[in-house]
Amino acid sequence: MTTASVSRPPGQAGRPPGSAATLITVAPTGAELDKEKVPALPVTLDELVSTAVDCEAAGAAVIHIHIRDAGAQPTLDLARLKDTVQAVREATSLIVQLSTGGAVSDGFGPRLAVLDAAPDACSLTCGTVNFGDEVFSNPWPFMKELYAKTQATGVVPEFELFDMGQVAALHRLLDELGPPAGGHVHCDLVMGVPGGMPGTAAQVVQAAAALPAGATWSATGVGRTALPVMLAAVASGGHLRVGMEDTVTFARGRPVASNAELVSRAAELAGLAQRPAMSTGEARAMLAIPAR
Question: How far apart are CA 287 and CA 157, in angstroms?
Fold first, then answer.
């Protein structure tokens, strides 16, 4: 298997990568939810920037961005993406990570063009998965083309893994094309999607153990799996992704009030585990993303 160099934040010598602090990523919007049904969902640029500011203050270091058009529908419009990247950078020091998944209906061309918005990072899903009643298509040739473009543009990928077959595909991708921009491998285990891995503690441990040597990882629990996955990830030395893209229920019978509320809960849990939330500077060091 490919071995990639691992960068560590100051003070982590001799520790497993990322074990001294917790990287918190917020995914505030996604492409599936309807603004009319979830009024707290940030869909305008102003709402997204305000959310980014609040989430950084609550402990997030990375923001995973999907955008919407004037009608609040998912879009990969390049001009809107560029405006979003610029606006979030002007308002925060967050690492800006754009989704290259978009909506399940988006074609491969527009998804590749996301990198032209020059984000710090992007998501890169390592295989096709049944996404509820839909199919999230990521065939091998597209994965290779997208990964090669991240290497050429210097955009740091976060490898999204929905099932164990995608973990194997990640190893294959690294074997064939080498390490990512920056040299460090960071993954996100997306769990609880119907058609993908279950959101259980046992699955967190199994998936994390199968990752490339030296990789760091976050975990995302979709829907009601959010809390079990969060607890298992922190206990296993992993990092966290939270946000309204993945869950809109804070507790039984109580909707999420804001993305910052989810970030605050994750940061509180990380603090209780004596692995407090990373600063953006620490996150850039771990992920090998240059300062801007």
Answer: 9
Check whether 186 has a pLDDT greater than 60.
yes
φ, ψ (nearest 5 deg) of residue 214 = 85, -5
pLDDT per residue over 108-152, tens digit each?
Answer: 999 999 999 999 999 999 999 998 889 999 999 999 999 999 999
Token representation of residue 21: 């602090």
pTM of the predicted protein model: 0.93
Query: Structure tokens of 140?
Result: 């091998």
What's the angle, vertex CA 24, arms to CA 95 and CA 225, rounded to 5?
130
As given in the structure block, the two tokens for residue 239 are 């990092």
What is the token pair recorded at 90?
């002007």
Give the dihedral sign, CA 237/238/239/240: negative
Q: Residue 2 and residue 184: Cα distance in Å, rounded? A: 11
Tokens representing 29? 């919007």
Instruction: Please state, in angstroms and as integers, the Cα–Cα distance from residue 213 to each residue in 27, 177, 209, 269, following that order.
Output: 26, 16, 9, 26
